[in-house]
Amino acid sequence: MKNQRLDRKIWMRWGFVIAGLFFVVFVSNEVIQIALLHQDQQMMDERKNWIESFVVRDGRLQIDRENAGLIHFSKKGDVKVTIYNRERQLLYDSTGMQNTKLHQSIGIHQVNDHLRYIAPLQADQKTVGYVQIEGKKTVIIGLSLIYFFIIIGGIALLLYRDYLVRSYAKPIRFASRMAENLLEGSYNMIASDHVKRESVLRLNLAMNRVSDAMHELSRSYRRQQDSMSTLIENIGNGLIFVDGSGRINYVNQTFKDDFHTPAAHWELADYHEVIPYENVRQMIDEVFDSKKKLAQQLHLTVGIERKHFDVSCAPIINKHHRVRGIVVVFHDITEIKKLENTRRDFVANVSHELKTPVTSLIGFTETLLDGARDDKDLEEQFLQIMLHEGQRLQSLITDLLELSKIEREHFELHWVQVSLRELLDNVLLIFKEKVTTKNIKIVRKNGSDGIVLGDAFRIRQIMINLITNAIAYTPENGTVTLSIQEHEQDVQLIISDTGIGIEAEQIPRIFERFYRVDKARSRDSGGTGLGLAIVKHLVEAHGGTIHVTSTPGKGSTFTITFLKSPPMIG
Q1: pLDDT tens, 388-435?
Q2: Which is nearest to 564 in space by CA: 449, 465, 481?
Q3: Angle between helices 2-55 and 67-77 in degrees, nearest 10
Q4: What are the pLDDT digits (tens) for 116-128?
Q5: Are β-strands 56-57 and 60-61 bridged in parallel, bridged antiparallel, or unpaired?
Q6: Which parts of the chain span the membrane according to its record (predicted)?
Q7: Considering Cα of 157, then 162, then 163, then 168, what sign does the dihedral take?
Q8: Helix axes 531-541, 376-406, angle to 10 degrees
Q9: CA nearest to 171, candidates 127, 130, 124, 208
Q10: In terms of C-beta density within 10 A (0-12 exposed, 13-18 middle, 19 or more buried), how is residue 459 classed?
Q11: I need a labelling partner for 547 at 20 to 30 A (CA). Which of 101, 314, 322, 476 fits?
Q12: In angstroms, rounded to a whole number, what is the distance separating the alpha carbons of residues 88 and 100?
């Protein structure tokens, strides 16, 4: 269909051009004929004037005496001369005709290739007769041939023009399509370098160079864009870019993750409308006004949490010293703040825990030195107290060293197949005297052997710490229940007691260092407040989990899940 339309347009163009050529020839011929006719009329006027001056004498026609002159004039001018009287009757005819009367009107008439000129003969401004001069028209020899060559030349020029157009149109159209593809990011078109015309060859080579340069530039831009995008998305800090008009152009994934928001409606929105933190909006406003970098530590609410962020706003200034945009970076320092608080609390707790036994040791030592050692009963009592405080101090230091060892980066477990049932039987022998003293009943539920992969010594340590707590926080005549439940992928060790229980709000904190549910009872039992922290780290080192349920006044249940094949060795 497209080819048919193209053919129709070509034929229409050719028809228009040929018609135009014929029109030009026709107009040119008419102009030339009019010019020749005008020239012939001037010549006829001159001949008529000569004849008039020759044959009109004394106000009338005198032809008889001038007959010889008229014949000579006719032969010399190669014309026919006919003279008529005032009544249009023939008086003289150079051809010898005697019976002709003038019927045509005055003027010049074309008869085939001749002209017939009729004009009045006047004397004293009166018509005394008429003259008719008939001669050949002036003709330009070869005019038709000239017209023919004009038409042929026009057609030849048109053909040559079409040839030139075809010679340049195809490479130009190709270059145009190639340029469009380059603008669209497609670089698969290659211009031919085997062409005859130097100008076309130079165009093709230039287009190929442009294509190569743009392709390389595009690849470089994509690499930089990918690198920058990867860097921005994985920089570890939340980032917002605000343009010069105050609209948000970009929000990276880290910001969305940190603030738990998809931020889908943020882009292209005014930052005053979408950023929910007034202090952040004020920082951006201040940077727009001052054009200087600004940094602050802010407490921002994220969901139900309050997080600490180091927020910095940096303006992007153009060469006209105008703000093109602002980069807002959110560095989450919540964990750093928590670590600082934990260290501060740790130092305070350690100092407090060490102060009590050390104070007791110093106090009782000073008392003994002041004379109390003379009383043997009092001396023995003080020495027993000092021994107890020393043992407590030793336990605290041992647990601190153990916790420090477990938290080291290169802490390793000795992986073997362990039977939780056999390990639990051996551990219970340690508590035989203690449960007898408090009259606590140990209930062992039947279950499987509970074969897991782990460090037998560390699992034994987990059991000892948990059972110690269960016995310590269970009053006399209470019950501690132990069971092992085996599943397809894991094995659970469940330790339940009928002790004092734990309040719901305290459960998330019981694995913190030095945190005690009942501080007085824990200290009286010799606890250091580090047992559950050690348990948590050891369970996580085994790839397991620990779960606690408790009802105040009724008891607590600790469920430890060990994987049969931990990921670290699987």
Answers
A1: 767 667 666 666 666 666 666 556 778 888 888 888 888 888 888 888
A2: 449
A3: 160
A4: 888 888 887 888 8
A5: antiparallel
A6: 12-36, 139-160
A7: positive
A8: 30
A9: 208
A10: buried
A11: 476
A12: 9
Nearest one of 285, 296, 297 to 326, comparing CA atoms: 285
- Spatial neighbors of 215 by CB under 8 A, at least 6 apart, are 187
DSSP string, 171-218: HHHHHHHHHHHHHTT-------S--S-HHHHHHHHHHHHHHHHHHHHH
Phi, psi of 102 (to 5 degrees): -75, 115
- Which tops the pLDDT comparison, 408 or 445? 445
- pLDDT the model gives residue 307: 86
Inter-CA distances, 104 with 97, 101, 132, 444, Å:
17, 9, 10, 153
d(CA 337, CA 333) in angstroms, rounded, equals: 6
Give the pair of three-digit tokens for residue 168.
Answer: 């340049």
Read off the DSSP letter of residue 261.
Answer: -
Q: Residue count of the chain, please give it.
A: 570
Could you tell me which residues come within 8 angstroms of residue 303 by beta carbon, excluding any fewer than 6 positions away? Answer: 260
Alpha carbon of 45 to those of 48, 67, 116, 140, 219: distances in Å?
A: 5, 20, 12, 21, 89
Q: What are phi and psi of 105, to 5 degrees?
A: -80, 165
User: pLDDT tens-digit profile of 206-218?
Assistant: 777 777 777 777 7
Query: For 140-186, what is each residue's pLDDT tens digit?
Result: 777 778 878 888 888 888 777 777 777 766 777 777 777 777 777 77
CA count, 13 A, side-chain hemisphere, 252: 20
Give the dihedral sign, CA 533/535/541/546.
negative
* Joined tokens for residue 340: 């600082």
Tokens of 522: 């824990």
Hey, what are 395's tokens?
């336990």
Question: Chain centroid to CA 444: how far?
Answer: 65
Which tokens in the block code for residue 553?
């006044």
Q: Which residues partner with 119 through β-bridges?
A: 131
207: left (phi over 0), alpha (psi -120 to 50) or beta: alpha
The identity of residue 491, as a single letter, is: V
